[in-house]
DNA sequence: TAGTGGTCTAGACCACTGT
DNA sequence: CAGTGGTCTAGACCACTAT
């Protein structure tokens, strides 16, 4: 069942991408759209809200909405899963488990993931044949058996876990910064020690809010960037100071 | 005029932060909230949607909403403006213009900002007394006079421009990656050449979609991170491949 | 099967923009 | 001032979850 407002949003989005609503132009009024699509104003508003959330359209009270850009937006899955992101972008990609072991959870990991044992996995991923990403993932004990059952060259862990045990990654918290490559990073990525890496740390949970994994992913500089569009009044990405000196991290990420 | 749904959202948010609705617990049903606040269900839904967008609350059809976290979310202004962000976080901060000059726009800048002349400004910003950020900003010609009129140690350019000429930064597009410090970066930030920096490139526009500035901001590693919470079905931050080899950048950022 | 969130309608009033 | 988007209501039906 696809919602009416989704269909309208799709149609408007296509109009933007195809140039029927060029960047900088005004969108038709809500009343006009409601008539065109034979829908109530509320439904049209819901459709337009989707485009606003995607950053394609800007909105202010009293004035017509304007088209801000024509870049397509990606899904949660594409942010969460390297494989799904790379596939959607038409990239050649691969992955390989480099090391994997069960070990007792540290105090912080236990608080973050629950349980007393975790599974630690080190993966190297390639894009267009080049190594670009080192993933150090710590899985909660309860998913460890399912993860261990995966092949070492599993393309998409996210998809495989869904198919194997119906596990859905639903929520994520991400922290993005830059770090110098360590010895292991450097060896795996083929860069010099100390060279810049883009780091994405994250904790992912199920629909119920149950933590599944915590990961430290490091991209070779120049291979990948994060992109965001925002507007006054709607903006989920935030800066965070990293406490240069004062009392240490109460933050969830401390590895 | 503060909207009803904002007040309800504020109240619910405070309940989450104060522990009345602890992380992992269920939120009251929409019907219950509607009765409690004496509002229609639609209004309550709008309030809860705010919390969902902030990542504080998770939502799925058929089940009660659950509380995901208690971190406060920040505003567009706080992402856009170093001063407003630092002030909201209670940090000590400062800034200083290091260099500034008008020059002809490159072809890319002309396409991005409009006009044939731009104003280029190099600023160094400090956090807790330490230099942490080098800002290289290119302003569109039409705002150049207003920017040049600012004092060299202006704390908040965003606020000053609003007060001086009523300019509002309304929309932004950001690209986040890691780079090695160049000679100038290294000298200004007090780090070694080649050490990792977190880079945020952005283009900002007015309400009308008119481009105002394009900037390349570089943070010393370990000083600042970007943070995001997301969920299946709502997610504005995306990865972007940086084209290791194939034909060069059609992307808007190419400086 | 009852409860809950998701979708949709029809209409009202208000705040703001543009002319 | 007319037009437009923002807020709010009251009620209906549907899809999904939990028991």
UniProtKB/TrEMBL annotation, chains A, B:
Keywords: DNA-binding, Transcription, Transcription regulation. SMART domains: HTH_GNTR, UTRA. SUPFAM superfamilies: Chorismate lyase-like, Winged helix' DNA-binding domain. The keyword Transcription applies. It holds the Pfam family UTRA. Residues 2-70 form the HTH gntR-type domain. It comes from the Bacteria. CDD domains: WHTH_GntR. This is GntR family transcriptional regulator.
